[in-house]
Amino acid sequence: MHLPIDLRSDTVTRAPAAMREAMARAEVGDDVYGEDPTVALLERRVAELLGKEAALFFPTGTMANQAAIGAQAGPGDEVICEAGAHVVAFEGGALSALWGAQARPLPGQRGLLSAAQVAAAIQPPGNDHFPASRLLCVENTANRGGGTVWPLALLEEVSGVAHRAGLAVHLDGARLWNASAASGVALADYAACADTVSVCLSKGLGAPAGSLVATSAEFAPKLRRLRKRLGGGLRQVGHLAAAGLYALEHHLPRLAEDHEKARRIATALADVPGLSVAPVETNIVYVELADGLDSASLLHRLREAGVLAGSDGPRKIRLVTHFDVAPEACDEAARRIAGCL
Ligand code: TLP
Question: Where are the beta strands (DSSP E) in 26-142?
Fold first, then answer.
């Protein structure tokens, strides 16, 4: 029995044997006491990569994002973001449920916002009618935008508008690694645009779990306190941190391969009647379906044909490449998709 070709997400990877060995060998301690040397090493390494003074380990990207948001926005505050942003569209309503803040979602261009849009959305101060604009959230790469990469100059411009108006900026960098691999822009240059930056080890990097938020030394204790409140204070978490360190050393340099695989799929599907393939910038391929096709039944047929894909609404499917799928499997997946229409 062949395993299906799994393109649902880059989260589906399984830790390779060498990563598991690194996890088993990790020196650990109780991280709530600040005594886990491996998590401390990972936090230092990520802070350094992102050019920040501190970084804090979280179990998930969702908790990392929400702790960063909760530390910077509260009841009655407005959080400006792109309408499809993970922080508002995919985190179970946490923004309002946990923090009492409200979202100001703006329609983006492939997940990106313009400086003029952000400037126009910031509430003028001193009027009791308006919520207080407190935080801008940006996502790089923009997942639902199509794995799009923010041009650094645009990100600087947009975050500059927010900062000058007194807002904080959070960068959801679950796939910041992919943005940097695709553009050649240093991670730290992107991170410099934001006060808090979340990154994930469990997406393209292939670790089983783990995210970090990088920020200033002054801000880190506030985040740590919220992490505890959310139940994210972990004990011998060095086992997971070891997977993260392994992933940074061995998988980070390979991300361009995932981008190449995504381009292969896009190229193979480009001329297939009934499909419209969005431009591919990193490891995410969105495909719009023509009239008469719907994603739920196509996903079902694909599953029967041994391809797992995701959907985004009734007329769009998502294919994500990762290190557990070979280039030839990507070609085969494209053939099977064309055969299922
Ligand atoms: N994204 C997942 C799904 O939740 C959609 C995926 O398969 O793409 N930020 C961004 C930009 C993300 O894409 C994700 C996960 C997260 C945050 C949340 O990370 P986790 O799943 O670790 O909570």
Answer: 54-58, 77-82, 102-106, 132-139
> What ligand 1 atom has the least distance to the C-alpha of 209?
22
Report the pLDDT averaged over residues 178-205: 98
The two beta strands, 77-82 and 102-106, are parallel
Q: Which of 239, 338, 329, 330 is nearest to 280 (CA)?
A: 330
Output the pLDDT for position 126.
Answer: 87
Per-residue model confidence (pLDDT) at position 320: 98
Residue 61: CB within 6 Å of ligand 1? yes
Q: Give me the domains of the chain, ranges plus CATH numbers.
A: 17-252 (3.40.640.10), 254-339 (3.90.1150.10)
The finding on whether 9 has its CB within 6 A of some atom of ligand 1 is: yes
Say yes or no: CB of residue 86 within 6 Å of ligand 1: yes
Burial (CB count <10 Å: 0-12, 13-18, 19+), residue 187: buried
The chain-wide mean pLDDT, for the chain, equals 97
What is the number of helices (H) and of strands (E) in the chain?
A: 15, 13
Q: Answer yes or no: are the C-beta atoms of 29 and 36 closer than 8 Å.
A: yes
Q: For the whole model, what pTM was predicted?
A: 0.98
Shortest CA distance to 220 belongs to which of 199, 236, 197, 201? 197
- With a pLDDT cut of 90, the percent of the chain lying above it is 99
pLDDT of residue 3: 83
Is residue 303 scored above 90 in pLDDT?
A: yes
Q: Give strand pairing partners of 56.
A: 213
What's the burial of 255, exposed, middle or buried (CB within 10 Å: 0-12/13-18/19+)? buried
Which secondary-structure segment (H or E) carries 271? none
DSSP-derived pairing of the beta strands 211-215 and 284-289 = unpaired
pLDDT tens by residue, 317-331: 999 999 999 999 999
Assess whether the C-beta atom of 13 lies below 6 angstroms from ligand 1.
no
- Indicate if ligand 1 lies below 6 Å from the C-beta of 62: yes
- Mutation pick for ligand 1 pocket among 65, 86, 197, 202 (CB with most ligand atoms within 8 Å): 86
